[in-house]
Write a structure and sequence with these properties.
By secondary structure, the chain is α+β, with helices and mostly antiparallel strands. The chain is built from 17 helices and 12 strands. The strands form 3 sheets. Strands 1, 2, 8, 9, 10, 11 and 12 form a 7-stranded mixed beta sheet that branches. It has a 3-stranded antiparallel beta sheet with strand order 4-3-5. A two-stranded antiparallel ribbon has the order 6-7.
């Protein structure tokens, strides 16, 4: 029988269509894909200077006349909260849908330290990755492989920032401690984790240490990603876990689409988010220019989504699996956090070697039960965390099972009655019998 480790090593690549719609933050929530104004891509030869040599971010070009609007209710329709209202209402649970929070950066050192010249002086060697947004958008930055290349803040800004085929963003970069501190006080609930990471833990007598009551993948932890992009950049349609995105400098236009509307309907997703007639993945700017004006798309977003402008100092909260895309208006710097992710430890050389196109397989499931439904052989409905879980009858662990905590797609509660039925093969008799404590692998 395949072990959990074996499953992780040979886990199939997600199909291109799902990867384009699922991750990448992708984080996305971030700057990334750009459209060039002419029919030909820019010259990307080494001797062409694509650097940003302006004094300040605000000195760059900004397409306000074409892409800006006044957030009138029939377009945006989102609540615009104070920080106090955000915290009192615990809007990060997602029950109220997306929201915009005002004045989030008040008191942040980033308002000075992330000005263009000051950022170059303080953090020239801070690392990230860059790549062509059209390719990376198909897989997300975590799985882009050779489609990404390492860079630094200084190299990207001074040599590549105005190259529409390059973007600067990575969820796994090792951000300098100073840049993290520049964003204090973090928005809640990230701030609560930083104040007391053990607040979601309890003492486990058999282990003589604290263990998580709530698994890490359900916590807003110390994850932070930085996005730097020029006018008209922005990741095309995608979705992921709950995330917040704070604009420090610049502005963003957001198109958001309710998860309940498109869940499990792949053709509907394709028809709204893609250039269906040409079987192409349009950039954000291209989508707004060419595809959004079509009556069916306009009607769908008006009735089941939001079209909003996010200004400097504001935070956009995107709930779990809401489809969204972003287009920068002017040079834009933002900071992002996503539930379940921890602080980045940096990329390794081997992360840039594999070819994502060679390892994709359109016939594979995504491994995400919340999207695919239970795997073949699964008996009974999804488990709600109460009583005995249903029995998995398939060979080996279910797709996506990592060997610790409930499988993907299960509800948040941990089951404390020993391993669920069907996982006894990997369960050690001398363990405590508390699944939330022990996991199911050595």
């Amino acid at each position: 029988m395949a072990t959990s480790a074996d499953k992780r090593r040979r886990r199939p690549r997600r199909p291109a269509i799902r990867a384009a719609l699922v991750p990448a933050l992708l984080l996305a929530t971030s700057s990334c894909v750009a459209a060039w104004p002419s029919s030909e891509p820019p010259d990307d030869s080494e001797d062409v200077d694509h650097g940003n040599h302006n004094e300040e971010w605000s000195d760059g070009p900004a397409s306000w006349e074409e892409f800006g609007h006044d957030n009138r209710p029939e377009l945006c329709g989102l609540p615009r909260l104070t920080v106090e209202e955000w915290e009192a209402g615990e809007y990060w649970t997602g029950r109220a849908g997306p929201v915009i929070v005002r004045n989030v950066t008040e008191g942040w050192a980033a308002l000075n330290n992330w000005k263009k010249r000051e950022m170059l002086r303080r953090y020239p060697d801070a690392e990230a990755t860059m790549g062509e947004g059209r390719l990376v958008g198909e897989t997300g930055p975590d799985d882009a492989g050779k489609n990404l290349q390492p860079t630094t803040i200084k190299e990207f800004i001074t040599k590549h920032m105005y190259d529409p085929l390059k973007y600067f963003f990575d969820r796994k970069i090792a951000i300098p401690r100073g840049m993290l501190e520049d964003c204090h006080p973090f928005p809640m609930p990230t701030r609560a984790y930083l104040a007391d990471p053990d607040a979601w833990s309890r003492q486990a007598p058999s282990k003589k240490k604290k263990v998580r009551v709530v698994p890490d993948r359900e916590l807003w932890r110390d994850h932070l990603a930085i996005s730097i992009g020029s006018d008209l950049q922005g990741l095309t349609f995608h979705h992921h876990r709950e995330a917040w995105n704070v604009v420090v400098f610049g502005a963003k236009r957001w198109i958001l689409w309710d998860h309940d509307r498109w869940k499990g309907q792949n053709e509907m997703q394709w028809r709204l988010t893609r250039d269906w007639a040409n079987n192409a993945h349009a950039t954000g700017a291209e989508w707004i220019r060419r595809l959004y004006p079509e009556p069916n798309r306009t009607k769908e977003i008006r009735e089941h989504g939001h079209d909003c402008i996010q200004h400097e100092g504001e935070m956009m909260f995107v709930p779990h699996r809401w489809m969204h895309m972003v287009v920068n208006i002017g040079d834009t710097v933002s900071v992002i956090s996503e539930v379940g992710l921890g602080i980045g430890e940096g990329k390794k050389p081997e992360d840039f070697l594999f070819d994502p196109d060679e390892s994709s397989d359109d016939g594979e499931r995504s491994g995400d039960w919340s999207e695919d439904g239970p795997p073949p052989g699964w008996e009974g409905p999804m488990w709600n965390g109460k009583g005995d879980p249903p029995i998995w009858e398939g060979e080996g662990p279910p797709p996506g099972w990592e060997g610790w905590g409930p499988p993907p797609g299960w509800e948040e509660q941990m089951w404390e009655g020993g391993p669920p039925p069907g996982w006894s093969e990997d369960w050690s008799e001398d363990e405590s019998g508390d699944w939330s404590e022990d996991g199911s692998e050595d």
